[in-house]
């Protein structure tokens, strides 16, 4: 039969592959699962979000509008998110996605003389922080919420 002939041909010449076989062998089963919540109420720069059961305090989230926020007080049913930016773009029922990262900011010599926002993004019109992009000196990042050093050591 034709199927048997094709199998023999493939066994004899392993270099011969069809486009379908190539797609099968190159197929990746990597899955990325996002935890999504929904905005319940929002106002005064705070959004209450339902459904982010595994979120950590200090974790960055992203709203459907692209606005970012930080989780401050996870509770059983919902979490309070401080909105970084204008909360007018956020409506009740909007989706919110966990980023999985605790809020951190760039630190080091690349920031000397620069004006940055609360997330370390330059707002002085002088372009990106070059040392951070190239991975050079000053490319270190530190968490925003860190334990203060002791007074007496």
β-strand percent reads 25-35%
Overall structural class, as computed from helix and strand content, comes to: alpha+beta
Count of domain modules: 2
> Rg, please?
25 Å
* Spatial strand order of the main sheet: 1-2-5-4-3-6
| Total E-strand runs | 8
- How many alpha or pi helices? 3
Mind summarizing the main beta sheet? Answer: 6 strands, antiparallel, barrel
What overall form do the CA principal axes indicate?
extended
CATH hierarchy, class of the largest domain: Mainly Beta
Any low-confidence stretches, pLDDT <50, length ≥5?
1-9
- The average pLDDT value, as a whole number, equals 79
Q: Architecture of the largest domain in CATH?
A: Beta Barrel
Distance between the termini: 83 Å
- State the helical fraction: 10-25%
As for the CATH topology of the largest domain, it is Elongation Factor Tu (Ef-tu), domain 3
Q: Secondary-structure element order, as H and E?
A: HHEEEEEEEHE
InterPro entries: ATP_synth_asu-like_sf, ATP_synth_F1_asu, ATPase_F1/V1/A1_a/bsu_N, ATPase_F1/V1/A1_a/bsu_N_sf, P-loop_NTPase
Protein name: ATPase F1/V1/A1 complex alpha/beta subunit N-terminal domain-containing protein
Pfam families: ATP-synt_ab_N
Keywords: ATP synthesis, ATP-binding, CF(1), Hydrogen ion transport, Ion transport, Membrane, Nucleotide-binding, Transport
Fold and architecture overview:
Belongs to the ATPase alpha/beta chains family. InterPro entries: ATP_synth_asu-like_sf, ATP_synth_F1_asu, ATPase_F1/V1/A1_a/bsu_N, ATPase_F1/V1/A1_a/bsu_N_sf, P-loop_NTPase. One of its GO terms (cellular component) is proton-transporting ATP synthase complex. Residues 33-100 form the ATPase F1/V1/A1 complex alpha/beta subunit N-terminal domain. Keywords: ATP synthesis, ATP-binding, CF(1), Hydrogen ion transport, Ion transport, Membrane, Nucleotide-binding, Transport. With 153 residues, the protein is α+β, with helices and mostly antiparallel strands. It folds into two domains: 36-102, Elongation Factor Tu (Ef-tu), domain 3 (Beta Barrel), CATH 2.40.30.20; 103-145, no CATH class. The protein is 16% helix and 30% strand. The protein has three helices and eight strands. The protein has a six-stranded antiparallel barrel. Strands 7-8 form a two-stranded antiparallel ribbon. Strand 3 (59-63) and strand 4 form a beta hairpin. The chain is extended and about 65 Å long. The protein starts with a helix and ends in a 10-residue tail after the last strand. The model is unreliable at 1-9 (pLDDT under 50).
């Amino acid at each position: 039969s034709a199927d048997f002939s094709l199998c023999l041909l493939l066994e004899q010449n392993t270099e011969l592959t069809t486009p379908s076989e190539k797609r099968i062998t190159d197929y990746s089963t990597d899955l990325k699962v996002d935890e999504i919540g929904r905005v319940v109420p929002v106002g005064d720069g705070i959004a209450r979000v339902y459904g982010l059961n595994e979120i950590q305090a200090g974790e960055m989230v992203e709203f459907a509008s692209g606005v970012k926020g930080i989780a401050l007080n996870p509770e059983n049913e919902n979490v309070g998110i401080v909105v970084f930016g204008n909360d007018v773009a956020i409506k009740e029922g909007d989706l919110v996605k966990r980023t999985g990262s605790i809020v951190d900011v760039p630190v080091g010599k690349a920031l000397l003389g620069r004006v940055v926002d609360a997330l370390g993004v330059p707002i002085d019109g002088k372009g990106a922080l070059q040392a951070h992009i190239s991975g050079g000196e000053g490319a270190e990042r530190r968490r925003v919420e860190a334990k203060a050093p002791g007074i007496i050591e």
